[in-house]
Amino acid sequence: MSFAGGKYYSMKDFTEGQVGKLLIDFSVPLVAGNIFQNLYNVVDSIIVGNYLGKEALGAVGASFPIIFALISMVIGVGSGASTVVAQYFGAHQHENVKKTIDTIYIFFLVASVFISITGIILSKWLFRLLNLPDEILPDAVTYLQIYLTGTFFFFGFSGISSILRGMGDAKTPLFFMILATLTNTTLDLIFVLVFKWEIQGVAWATVISHAFAFFGAISYLNKKHPIIKLGFRKYQFDKEIFRKSIRIGLPTGFQQSFVAFGMMAIMGIVNSFGTSTVAAYTAATRIDSFAKMPAMTFSQALASFTAQNLGAYKEKRARQGLSKTLMLSLSYCVIISLLILLFGSRIMKIFTPDNEVVRIGQDYLVIVSSFYLLFAVMFTIVGFLRGAGATLIPMINTFTTLYLIRIPVAYFLSSEIGVTGIWWSEPAGWLIGIIILAVYFKSGKWKGKVVVEPGEVPVPEEPI
């Protein structure tokens, strides 16, 4: 917790205090924020599936692997900058925190222009490459092109959120994410039901909501935050800090890219089974991502916790954070797996009244949710390694589990037993991923990846 000018700010110093309580207090608003972030996609899919039909639902779902592929490298570098921010903040080097923020926003601006133009030009070709059914293609191209016009707003708000989380503040991103989600839902209903804009309305609602969250957060932070100031001013691009962000973030960027292109490959296999399967996969993965999200969020919280404590050279405390996070994630996954197994089909019916789509989606949920415990273990270890700055092994792990396990298994089993073979490939990848990460963690080779040198860690007289 911090004070500046007599005002309270919700930044957290993870290097002191009770480990379990700190992680839970930080994770709760973080989980809530990610719930609302996921509601963007869920609300879009519910409205599209119920009012525009399964073809439009499939179009929205088919767009997301491509969107993820286009933005994944940038998001990875941004996560590297977030780790740098967290380590500098843990070491109380606040001037370097400011320089890191400036540097990453210059990078975001340049990257967003390139991605928007490239994606819009190549959109139709990319969908053809994925063998998207013809009845879905026009809506998919329209949705993707409109969505990509708001790339900078997405990067901008995601950057603010990850930086604040690295500094221990999960409450401010939560506040603006709630407002943005409510805006998105309201605009979806107005644009689709009142203005009859169909798929274009859903896409524009998302772009406007991202812009609203970004500019709202900038206005608030410029008035209230002691460190983060964004706006039309002279930014400092620090080459050395950018190099550190690249060193940590580039492996994560490649990892995200591997995931993105792997998702595209899986989507290509799914597309070959027709429109109903594409729509079912879209709805089921929305439910699946919602279910996985708290475990992924605990991993994010652990990354910030680990980064600050290793930045302050408190390895024992960082390991305690790993143990506590693992217990939290496993407990949650037992509960959510049972709920999905019991109520999966009813949840699917929220997205679509089509019985065939519901049946296919239910099969996916039963198979995948039965193995969420594996997912929780894998992501907890990944969170620790990212906080330590050891991002190369998670990248290698992602490549191995996707391209050597999941995609070949999905291709082979789908040709042997049908579409359920695709669903079985996911837990197979998680199992191999745990083995790879556990071996690396036990080796201790992740040590020594911190960007702060031991002599640079001061003992502050008082917090800022």
Task: Explain the overall architecture.
By secondary structure, this protein is mainly alpha-helical. The protein has one domain (14-448). Helices cover 80% and strands 1% of the residues. It contains 14 helices and two strands, in the order ββαααααααααααααα. The protein has helices at 19-51, 54-90, 94-129, 137-148, 151-166, 171-194, 198-224, 239-271, 275-311, 315-351, 355-369, 372-387, 392-417, 420-443, and strands at 2-4, 7-9. The chain has a two-stranded antiparallel sheet. β1 and β2 form a beta hairpin. α1 (19-51) runs parallel beside α6 (171-194), α1 packs antiparallel against α9 and α10 (315-351) crosses α12. It starts with a strand and ends in a 21-residue tail after the last helix. Residues 1-9 and 457-464 have low confidence and may be disordered.
